[in-house]
Amino acid sequence: xxxxxxxxxxxxxxxxxxxxxxxxxxxxxxxxxxxxxxxxxxxxxxxxxxxxxxxxxxxxxxxxxxxxxxxxxxxxxxxxxxxxxxxxxxxxxxxxxxxxx
Length: 101
Hints:
Elements: H1 3-36, H2 42-53, H3 59-73, H4 77-91, H5 93-100
Helix pairs in contact: 1-2, 1-3, 2-3, 3-4
């Protein structure tokens, strides 16, 4: 692999981390407000979970995802399980390695 390609990949990874940090700021504020208000707005909760799920490569976003899932579980355990499985399908490399060999 060429040095230029490695530099490009490294720069892209850095940009992704920067984007995740920016997203965390916004999503954390929304999740905190939602939980503080004891919202039962399933559409809003699922919209937040969908967005946060896109950042499953970032530890802070995963913690936020788990926090919102724990909150949502009290409202709809089955729907929460769907989101947990979606996370595992998208981001859990340990489970996938076991399936392939």
